[in-house]
Design a protein that fits this description.
By secondary structure, the protein is α+β, with helices and mostly antiparallel strands. It has 11 helices and 22 strands. It binds manganese (II) ion (MN) (2 copies).
């Protein structure tokens, strides 16, 4: 009997071709889906192909459903053998990622260069977002009420957008500043053009050139930007890393890696004991507020709707929730060998050692953490062991070094026993994050076991 706790590298436990094949599919998903709207569209298409029907459509007549909230959340529900009052096994992940948003009145010029004003979204290290190719994604509601969908910078023929940085020759003062002040929020503005209109008497000739061009190509007038949601994300595909191709770098692993593995697990799960439901949420990176954040009550609304349509008498959404369980599927930090001093090695996640179970998050004395119970940790630990899923525990860094939170507390607040579980990344929140393919596949296996067997 092994009485000492030790984790193993998941590459030694998993079938390598299964790991690699799964990652190829995921690679295509994060290459194509960079915003919450794009994720919702893709997951919706795939769910419809698999026979899921929209709970809010007039033709709804099914045991399973998909439900979409304001184009930025999608829920997928699969009925299990047990009655609904036994609760639901939830997996909740978020589909928003840190990025640079365009302001509502963005266009200006300076010294013959046209630029967009921006306001960054989520916790970014600003210096990482300059001098790299960025793509513009989002929607513009035009004056006539038409919705214009935007994606510029992803194909090789497309132009990209780039935020400039100071040359080292003139950066003596900048280089002496703390990193957090070296690049300020108001200077994260990308170049969008540099050709003037002909008329030399005109003012703002560079801005006007761009306005003319946008009007001719897309029918956009300047006021349309006010009713837009445009965002800059790193341009280009996710790529394999390393001679052995064991690592995947891409934009938005946090938290699309959990979104993808969770909904694939639900699609492929069979013989569910309890019903299961995947919630893909928005606004996690800025506090889970708003109509599409995890603090909104769309979840209660969807469950009430389902109870009503199925004619289940005397059952409330609240009762269902209080009998439910949840994996808060979000990423953790892998111990970075280059920055080991911020990690407490014995309780940090190791890259490639499988899905990470996190009992509590928070900061400064576990402040603002959901903190799962020992009983729940026991149940999850047993499930993963019984199903041979590579797993480990992980606390986010040394005590008092920093910290962070997840959606877990917003699920727990609803009476749902909840614990964090997801892969550990390197370079979390960077334009291109790093994930181990073995951890991605371990997460998929963990979510599938949870959906099929957790009681
Ligand atoms: Mn996250
Ligand atoms: Mn995050």
């Amino acid at each position: 009997m092994n009485i000492e706790y030790k984790t193993k590298n998941a590459w030694l436990l998993l079938d390598r071709s299964e790991v690699m094949n799964f990652s190829e599919q995921y690679k295509q998903f994060i290459t194509a889906c960079k915003t919450e709207r794009e994720v919702v569209e893709t997951v919706k298409e795939n769910a419809i192909k698999r026979g899921y029907v929209d709970l809010f459509s007039s033709e709804y007549n099914s045991n399973n459903f998909l439900a979409i909230n304001n184009k930025k959340n999608i829920f997928i529900f699969k009925k299990g053998k047990a009655p609904l009052e036994k609760g639901i096994n939830f997996i909740v992940a978020h589909i928003d990622s840190p990025r640079v948003d365009i302001k509502q009145n963005p266009l200006y010029e300076g010294f013959d260069v046209a630029m967009f004003k921006t306001h960054y979204y989520g916790g970014i290290k600003k210096y990482q977002w300059v001098t790299l190719p960025l793509a513009l994604h989002g929607v513009i509601m035009l004056k006539d009420g038409k919705e214009l969908s935007v994606s510029i910078g992803e194909s090789n023929e497309d132009p990209v957008f780039v935020i400039s940085d100071l040359l080292p020759h003139l950066a003596r003062k900048q280089m002496e500043k703390p990193v957090k002040e070296a690049i300020v929020g108001e200077s994260l503005d990308p170049i969008v053009g540099s050709i003037p209109i002909e008329d030399e008497k005109e003012k703002n000739r560079f801005k006007k050139y761009i306005l003319n061009l946008l009007h001719k190509e897309y029918g956009i007038v300047e006021e349309d930007f006010i009713s837009s949601e445009l965002t800059l994300v790193p341009a280009g595909p996710a790529r394999d890393v390393g001679f052995d191709r064991s690592v995947l770098t891409g934009y938005g692993h946090d938290d699309k890696v959990c979104a993808y593995t969770a909904y694939q697990a639900l699609f492929n799960a069979n013989d569910l004991e309890k019903s299961a439901m995947i919630l893909l949420m928005d606004k996690e990176e800025i506090g889970s507020d708003g109509i599409t954040g995890s603090q909104s009550d769309f979840l209660e609304y969807a469950i009430e709707k389902y109870i009503k349509l199925k004619g289940i008498k005397e059952l409330s959404a609240r009762e269902v929730l209080h009998n439910s369980s949840c994996l808060s599927a979000d990423v953790n930090a892998a111990l970075d060998p280059l920055y080991r001093d911020v990690f407490e090695e014995q309780n940090s996640a190791i890259f490639g050692h499988g899905i990470v179970i996190t009992k509590f998050t928070g900061s400064g004395g576990k402040y603002s953490s959901s903190d799962a119970s020992a009983e729940l940790v026991y149940k999850v630990r047993s499930l993963l062991n019984e199903n041979n899923v590579p797993w480990q525990v992980g606390e986010l860094g040394k005590v008092d070094i920093g910290g962070g939170g997840t959606i877990a507390k917003f699920m727990a607040k609803r009476g749902i026993e909840t614990i964090d579980a997801g892969p550990a990344l390197l370079s979390m929140h960077a334009p291109f994050e790093l994930a181990s393919k073995a951890d991605i596949y371990s997460s998929y296996l963990a979510y599938k076991s949870f959906i099929e067997k957790f009681e």
